Amino acid sequence: MAFLNSSQINLKISLSELKSPVNLLALGFGSGLAPKAPGTFGTLLAFILAIFFPIFIAGWWIVFSSLLGIYLCHQCAKNLKIHDHPAIVWDEFCGLWLTLFLTQNIAFYAQYHWMTFVASFVLFRIFDIVKPWPISFLDKKVAGGLGIMVDDLVAALFAAICLYGFSLFFA
Tens digits of per-residue pLDDT, 71-95? Predict the structure, then answer.
């Protein structure tokens, strides 16, 4: 099946798309339907979920949700007929959860642990939006659900590395 790119069609999605369990998850329980900055809204919901349900930043959950995300994102993109539609935000969920998982030791030892969580959110969004190399390369060259997921997971690694660097510098 050929995918259209986002400049070829209207990006609006109807709420009826959320009836599919695959789309419901891939679209971040509807958070990806925000008219502006859907990735940020998806990341914000993932952040709230992680605060109230710490299981979302457990290592086994991140592996499971990332593998599931490859399937969800691929199927949702197929359903919407657009590769990496902006409303698909499961990749942001997994990327933020990975960032929080990788930086939880900093948060545990930091005097202001809530600032570590906020910094994780901000740095992840910066790397996900700006997409420096190799994130931009992966975003353009890796196809399917893996392609949708991998750039966010690498953005999470970049965010965590920066946060560790900041913590060493300011400790």
Answer: 999 999 999 999 899 999 999 999 9
The Cα 72–Cα 88 span in angstroms is: 9
| CA atoms of 93 and 86, how far apart (whole Å) | 13
User: What whole-number distance in Å separates Cα of residue 163 and Cα of residue 150?
Assistant: 20
* Dihedral class, residue 92 (left if φ above 0, else alpha if ψ from -120 to 50, else beta): alpha
d(CA 135, CA 154): 6
**In angstroms, how far is CA 85 from the centroid of its own chain?**
13
Confirm if 91 and 149 have CB atoms less than 8 A apart: yes
Burial string for 122-152 (b: 16+ CB within 10 Å, else e) reads ebbbebbeebeeebeebbeeeebbbbbbbbb
Identity at 50, one-letter amino acid code: A
- Rounded to whole angstroms, the Cα distance separating 34 from 159 reads 24
Distance CA 130, CA 158 (A): 12
pLDDT in tens, 123-169: 999 999 999 999 999 999 999 999 999 999 999 999 999 999 988 88
